[in-house]
Amino acid sequence: MTRTPRDRPERPGKPAVRIGRAGKKAIPSADDTVIIHGAVPPRDVLMRFISENPDKASKREIYKAFGLKGETRIELKALLREMEQDGLLEKKRNSLVRPGALPPVTVLDITTRDKDGELIGRPAEWPDDAGVAPAVSIRQSSVGQSKGKMPVGGIGDRVLAKIFPAKDRGGPAYTARIIKVLDRKRNNNAALGVFRASADGGGRIMPIEKRGEEMQVDAEHQGPAKDGDLVEVEIVRSGRFGLPRAAVKSVIGSVATEKAISMIAIHAHGIPYIFPDSVIKEADAAGPATMSHREDWRSLPLITIDPADAKDHDDAVHAEPDPSPDNEGGVIVTVAIADVSWYVRPKSALDQEALKRGNSVYFPDRVVPMLPERISNELCSLKQGVDRPALAVRMRFSKEGRKAGHTFHRIMMRSAAKLSYNQAQAAIDGNPDDQTGPLLEPILKPLWDAYATLTRGRERRQPLELNMPERKIVLKPDGTVDRVFVPDRLDAHKLIEEMMIQANVAAAETLEIKRQPLVYRVHDAPSLAKQETLREFLATLDLSLVKGGNLRSNHFNGILSKAVDQPYETMVNEMVLRSQSQAIYSPENIGHFGLNLMKYAHFTSPIRRYADLIVHRALVGTLGLGEGGITPAEEAALNDIAAEISTFERRAMAAERDTVDRLIAHHLSGRVNEEFDGRVSGVTKAGLFVTLPAYGADGFVPISTLGRDYFIYDEAHQALSGEKTGLGYRLGDQIRVKLVEAVPLAGALRFEMISEGRKMPTATRSFHKSGRRDHGGARKIPGTRPPRGRR
Q1: What is the chain's percent helix, strand, coil content, to nearest 5?
Q2: Which UniProt keyword terms apply here (predicted)?
């Protein structure tokens, strides 16, 4: 895949410049046209300059940056006035800013930390009608702190900060440096936990984090908390000895109730889950969509194919042979997506709440939706036999699976059938039921024929093909785990997936052709450091990964194919997955490495992803399809929106993962001291992470419990091996472990190793006497010998 190179970040306060043909300074615009120094720049260059230089965005600074004098200054004033009228810019004091952008100096409230421990703040004052307040990553220099030259902030503090545009994708859109701490709220030690009452009053707080610690609550600090309540507490005293003393600040609810486990994750990650009255009122007032600017497609037999328990249906499909003599053997594939943009308009209460959530969050026992049920499960759900508004793309493919063209349409549709994946697959496999029998010849078989055509295109494209089965948890009525299983991966799943991918590609291509700003779904190639780590690991299995900057997804597929049916197949799949970058949202297109696609945007799930709603609005606006199109203010804020929804996506993933960990830990808590079959899923200098394949549970074996030996951590081989015996454990090893501790509220499991280690390669047992890493990547782990008499 030929990828668009990532631009080098510019220095703050300096526009990106290069030399034009006349030998003068020039500035490249977004479409790479050369702007001569001294000429009025186009809108996109001005927007980029103002965004990247918020402290130099006055008219005088812009004149200087672009070398404008005389009449060109008058032209620039007129252009800036037009941009203000179009909502692309607004005045704040003497500077110009993008609507919703932060001024160069801002008061922030520090609210949380990210996964790397960096402080995250948000503006202390933010207009109610401006959507979600942008997150700001606060950088604190350890050098400055040690010398007392830089103010140090903590969670809960209000600070005055210098704001800079972020250089990295995928995180907050801004970084900041603290100028002054305005107010210390002293709630840096706020935490969530479960209150366990004592007989004599007061009680203890049981942690909900794996690394949390218990806290003591005296009777006078208990407040309204009862035994089993999930509470928010604040540490009031902490010393060198004894448990920290805490005070209950608020009661969230009882952990004995159904769905309590997911509620812990919702509060711990700060996920909005209650819709404001204004949002519910707006949703309840919404009525059926009109035929304005719509084509009537109600006679086209589009069908939905979803999980059997799905409550909202936002995509429908149809396929037929292409009747055109110019495309013999080709097919026409139609994908229709719920027209959420008709109901959720920019700056409305529904829109602001959807952006605040970013996406729906799916737990085993509940869904926290992005939109109220009136919208997601009713008006925008493509129900069988009911008229529903949709945005549809009709795509033509050759018999080789190459796309010959596509068109977008705003339509009114009526779903001909609601099928489950298993139901549709059974019909194709020769077991139709009363519903699918009449649909088999006219609808289902043409869909499967089209899927075969698209598969030929996919095989030629060669996206990354990881084999990482996902487990599904089935709960009992009381919210506890009933069973864990790996659902079958059916052709019906693959059919819908491939058709959705092609619809997403079509959306990105159309918007690019129209030069319409949008939010892409981008996936960068693995970093050179991750490539090298993977390369070293594969070398230990006599597998090789090509070197160089032109790495493509098919190179990884070659490695994965060689590992099929080998003892290390799972291990190789996991290591390839770890080497990958994280997919994010961005208005800058760098392509999608994993899918091996140059243009890709999320379009197919606007009910549950805000990114898709933005793409719908962009299509409606640029194609002139009626009301609900993207606004200039939204276009100007795409950088902020992309950063926010990328952050919210990671928040949702973390909350979902934590909930599964807690549910499984609760499920296994009654089986302490039992033995299980496991697999080494991670190797660190502190010990081994172990997965129980039958449950999808992850736990830890501390290195101090592995045996009476010093252990060496070999990063290249992903192994721990004993210095004297040479026996050890490696990523992917099938092992037997005993469960020795389960902490359900924290989702933590601790195991003891039962299996004897196996002989490790000699390279893993060589190290410098200092204990530092040698040329083979091995490192001695000091202090791992257990006390005398301990196993």
Answers
A1: 30, 25, 45
A2: Cytoplasm, Exonuclease, Hydrolase, Nuclease, RNA-binding
Tell me how far apart the alpha carbons of residues 417 and 440 are, in angstroms, rounded to a whole number. Answer: 12
* Residue 446 in tokens: 């043409």
CB within 8 A of 33, min separation 6: which ones? Answer: 42
Q: List the alpha helices (DSSP H) in 86-231.
A: 142-147
What CA–CA distance (Å, rounded) separates 264 from 231? 10
98 close to 88: Cβ distance less than 8 angstroms: yes
> Six-digit token pair at 292?
């304005």
Q: How far apart are CA 410 and CA 628, in angstroms?
A: 12
For residues 73 and 91, what is the distance between their CA atoms, to the nearest angstrom? 18
Nearest by Cα to 57 from 92, 107, 100 = 92
User: What number of CA atoms fall less than 13 Å from residue 135's CA on the CB side?
Assistant: 23
Q: What's the pTM value of the predicted model, to 2 decimals?
A: 0.78
Looking at residue 50, its pLDDT comes to 76
Which one, of 46, 87, 225, lies nearest residue 634 by Cα? 87
Q: Rounded to an integer, what distance in angstroms lies between the CA atom of residue 381 and that of residue 336?
A: 12
The rounded distance, in Å, linking the Cα atoms of 175 and 33 is: 30
For the segment 489-521, what is each residue's pLDDT rounded down to a tens digit? 999 999 999 999 999 999 999 999 999 999 999
Q: What is the Cα Rg of the chain in Å?
A: 29
- DSSP H/E element including 80: helix 71-85
Question: Residue 708, exposed/middle/buried by CB under 10 A (0-12, 13-18, 19+)?
Answer: middle
Phi and psi for 546 in degrees, rounded to 5? -60, 150
Residue 92 binned pLDDT confidence (cut-offs 50, 70, 90): low
Phi, psi (degrees; rounded to nearest 5) at 601: -145, 145
CA 392 – CA 601 distance, rounded (Å): 15
Least confident of 207-216, 473-482, 559-568, 622-631: 207-216
Nearest-5° angle of CA 513, CA 554, CA 537?
A: 130
Residue 329: what residue type?
G
Residue 753, CB-side half-sphere exposure with 13 Å CA sphere = 25
Q: Is the pLDDT of residue 21 over 80?
A: no
